[in-house]
Amino acid sequence: MTVLQIDLETYSSVDLKTCGVYRYVESPDFEILLFGFAYGDDPVLVIDLTAFEDIPDRVLRDLTDPSVIKTAYNANFERTCISKQYGIECDPSQWRCTSVWALALGLPGYLDGVAEVLKLDVQKDAKGKNLIKYFSVPCKPSKANGQRTRNYPHHDPEKWEEYKSYNRQDVVVEREVRRKLERFPVPAHEWALWALDQRINDQGVRLDPILFRQAIACDEQYEARLMQEAKEITGLENPNSLTQLKEWLLERGLDTPDGLSKDYMPQLLDAAPDDETRRVLELRQELSKTSVDKYNAMNRSMCADERARGLLQFCGANRTWRWAGRLIQVQNLPKNVFTDLAMAREILKSGDFELVEMLFGAPPFVLSQLIRTAFIPSEGCRFIVSDFSAIEARVIAWLADEGWVLEVFRGHGKIYEATASNMFGVPFETIVKGHANYELRARGKIATLACGFQGGENALAVMDSKHEINPDEYPRLVKQWRDANPNIRKLWYAAENAAVTAVRDKTTVKLAHGVQYRYEAGVLFADLPSGRSLAYVNPRIKPEPKFNKEGLVFDGMDQVKKKWMSHRTYGGRLVENLVQAIARDCLAESMVRVDAEGYRIAMHVHDEVVLDVPIGIGSLEHVTTVMGKPIRWAPGLPMRAAGFECDFYMKD
């Protein structure tokens, strides 16, 4: 099959990073500047569209020819830009994304990082960032360029030639990356899933602009009110200045050597010498809560048709291939804890901020509660929201053959009560509201969430965020949970032994239910029952003195530090990767099924799908039935889905 490698250089006055490519191409000044491409092993050609050069007719035809595979690094960008510039549909099923391919193999998500890790003979041109900044984004008027806000090729012909060389080199590097990765192909069903993902991102989800703009206005008004009060009490020009405020507090007799972070605020409030000082600290604390980042992201990224697009990154969590959030970050939306969401959002939209505060509380809390509700169905539609019940607990029990847990999920499904019953040796039927044993449910829930991946006392402390358990009980709870789940405990050590053996002996070791660890060409693969594999690059065995054993180390991206580095792993973490990956595959299977049934997926969050369904068509019962069907490659895994219908997105 013919492969057409493509790389573009473009211009738009809209910021690509903060607004996304769909909003980027809507700018009236958007244009493709350079179109670099190569067929197979042919020389790379760069078409300079600013010089009125034409893309060859063959290329234009092949952009819509299903027999020609189009490929790019971050193909979503090229697809979207080409569709806009030429008014054609770039069917994602005809494209392949080298960035996704790299992420699937545990490699960095950026091109120069991949080229470096793969030790390619060709590398990305380091001058690129400066050239992009010069030609592809607006510039500030200066003495050097007068009043112009954009640089054109004729402003620096030498740099422009360098930009064309940079574009050509990118095609060369992307092609070399693709060649290097061809040894480890992505399964065909995953490319089909990526195509579905692209259609979901292309379609996007509708936003309520009145709501999010009023939320921003409400926050501004509330913050101004707090600042004014702080100024009146302190007499400071800027009470938000840490330096100014610390000096003022010191004058009042309150020393703050450790700063004014939220961790120290309770002690500082207790130590406040008078009511005015205490009130200023309270104002500081309240100002730190005022955040409308997600509302601002909605404002930046919303397209002309009031839809947000490109919110989901396929294989964004590259250790497991789970999706990651982009722009508005729908994967970490606050939960709803009050019930009158409809009333609160309507009052907010009306602009009566005083009534909002009077009825529902301080604006920071109310606005965080309403973030989900800014996502609304298309005209004439309603949302059907459906998710899996306790999917990770089901998957780990299935993988470990923890029989009693599987029976719970095949029956009543009350895993927290059943866990508490098993841990504490009390009758299941006594863990109900009104009975003294009901307090054990919280312990069962926290232990279930904290201990499944070899978590100990620290994991319990993290999950026990409401401080429902005396920390002195943590060690005993960990032991009780592990004693109640012996097969899951065995799975941790079996997974670690299998992975270590596979690397040490450069072999394949079977684990359970179609999972096996396989060493090949400097990569440890965890083959999954769905037919895809997790990848651990450059695995090696290193002593682990703390536990007096051999341990597994591999190279990968640190999701927090955003850098390529070594990672040490262990049985619980390996099992966590397996469970989250299998749970992701369950969601993927269900997404394909509901799509095949004609339901339109507006977005999905963790183990939940949000469907944009015309009123009078489809039903919640049908959706949950489709979601809960047995999965072919996971026989015996008890699946169950639940859901609800709504006129705006929320957490039921």
UniProtKB/TrEMBL annotation:
<comment type="similarity">
    <text>Belongs to the DNA polymerase type-A family.</text>
</comment>
<dbReference type="GO" id="GO:0006261">
    <property type="term" value="P:DNA-templated DNA replication"/>
</dbReference>
<dbReference type="GO" id="GO:0003887">
    <property type="term" value="F:DNA-directed DNA polymerase activity"/>
</dbReference>
<dbReference type="InterPro" id="IPR002298">
    <property type="entry name" value="DNA_polymerase_A"/>
</dbReference>
<dbReference type="InterPro" id="IPR043502">
    <property type="entry name" value="DNA/RNA_pol_sf"/>
</dbReference>
<dbReference type="GO" id="GO:0006302">
    <property type="term" value="P:double-strand break repair"/>
</dbReference>
<protein>
    <recommendedName>
        <fullName>DNA-directed DNA polymerase</fullName>
        <ecNumber>2.7.7.7</ecNumber>
    </recommendedName>
</protein>
<dbReference type="InterPro" id="IPR036397">
    <property type="entry name" value="RNaseH_sf"/>
</dbReference>
<feature type="domain" description="DNA-directed DNA polymerase family A palm">
    <location>
        <begin position="368"/>
        <end position="617"/>
    </location>
</feature>
<dbReference type="GO" id="GO:0003677">
    <property type="term" value="F:DNA binding"/>
</dbReference>
<dbReference type="InterPro" id="IPR001098">
    <property type="entry name" value="DNA-dir_DNA_pol_A_palm_dom"/>
</dbReference>
<dbReference type="Pfam" id="PF00476">
    <property type="entry name" value="DNA_pol_A"/>
</dbReference>
<keyword id="KW-0235">DNA replication</keyword>
<dbReference type="InterPro" id="IPR012337">
    <property type="entry name" value="RNaseH-like_sf"/>
</dbReference>
